[in-house]
Amino acid sequence: MHRLLAALALILAAFLPPALGQETRSIAAANGTFDIPVSPQRIVALNDQILTLPLYELGAPVVGSAGRLAEDGSHYMRAGMDTLGIDFANTNIAFVGQFNALDVEAIAALQPDLIIGGTYTDPNVVDQLQSVAPTLVIDNATLGLVDTLKTLADITGTTSNFEPRFERYLANVERLKSFLGSAGDISVTLTFMFPAGEELWVYRDNLGAMTRVVADVGFARPEAVAALQETQASFSRELIEELNADFIFGFYRQQPDATPQAINAAYEKFAPGWCQALSACRNGQLVLLPAPAFGSTMTSLELALELVEAHIAARPFTPFDEGK
After folding, report:
1. First to last CA, the chain
2. 180-313 falls under which CATH superfamily?
3. Which whole-number Å values give the CA distances from 269 to 171, 274, 284, 288, in the listed order?
4. Which residues form the signal peptide (predicted)?
């Protein structure tokens, strides 16, 4: 019965555009130009971490979201509780499938007036959803974190919520620069290690809030990182000394298998003697930060900046000396 009703909702949506009677405006997205409501009232987001969390933070009316499936079959928003304290269970946001396995019927049943996806969204599904509501594809990888947030604020009419908060962030960046004196003399490496300890990822860009903070403050990068052709790369254990810097950052999650202890052990498993090989680690300057610090929200951006300030500006440290 539920599937029949959802199918009827999909058919009905094709003949009754949600924006009927609403004032509209033209918006250019990665998949074309569309007329969308000036003030959308029922938004469905096709990715939880990249879209739903920043939209919710902006105050946009999100009624449906893609999510993730836990081992017990329950669904959740990735980073939702850790970053903003939200999930499907404590909001009125409906689960509409996983970002790579969307339930088109469930989306139609919500009668959205705007649907927002990304370049990772199946183009065939995007085309299908156009009959439900204007469906915009946002290329967050090309836009970067801040321009993605600006775009989401623009299309949802929440720019007045975004701009003052972003201006405060920029002011705090300038404060940190004044504390540091010359940020360009301090080198930073951003790494990511999964608990299995099988692969080490190194980031020049595209690690959410953390790479934005590093760029805004103006920290230096090791030559090997600055020279990466892609925004990130898998590094072999034989090359880890090329990552040497004043500070090396990694990340843990608030999950039983990805605790700080588990991630530290994973680095050592990946490259035995890791800590002795790297100046930052020997000097206590390998810093693990909580996962929200590389998130896709203003909350993550503010958190990342505060943590970087606390770990670099608020303590003495031993600079990396290439001669040692």
Report:
1. 71
2. Nitrogenase molybdenum iron protein domain (3.40.50.1980)
3. 41, 9, 19, 16
4. 1-21
Domain 2-160 of CATH type 2.40.10.10: no
**Nearest to residue 234, comparing CAs of 287, 198, 196?**
198
Token output for 277: 């090989």
Task: Calculate helix-pair angle for 159-180, 140-156, nearest 10 degrees.
Answer: 130
Whether residue 168 has pLDDT greater than 50? yes
| Contact yes or no for 39/143 (Cβ under 8 A) | no
User: What percentage of the chain exceeds 90 in pLDDT?
Assistant: 90
Q: Is the predicted pLDDT of residue 30 greater than 60, yes or no? A: yes
Q: How many CB atoms lie within 10 A of CB 185?
A: 12
Instruction: Determine the Cα–Cα distance for residues 230 and 293; give it in Å rounded to an integer.
Output: 21
| Rounded distance between C-alpha atoms, residue 159 and residue 58, angstroms | 8
What angle in degrees, to the nearest 10, is found between the helix axes of 298-308 and 208-217?
50
What is the β-pairing status of strands 200-203 and 232-235? antiparallel
Q: Is residue 178 within 8 Å of residue 191, measured between CB atoms?
A: no
Four-CA torsion 164, 170, 172, 178, nearest 10 degrees: -150
Q: Of residues 11 and 305, which shows the higher confidence score?
A: 305
Q: What is the mean pLDDT of residues 104-111?
A: 98
Average pLDDT score over residue span 247-258:
93
**Is there a contact between 110 and 94 (Cβ–Cβ < 8 Å)?**
yes
What are the sequence ranges of the domains in the chain?
A: 2-160, 180-313
Q: What are phi and psi of 34, to 5 degrees?
A: -135, 150
C-alpha of 64 from chain center: 18
Contact 57, 299 (CB under 8 A): yes
- Per-residue model confidence (pLDDT) at position 240: 94
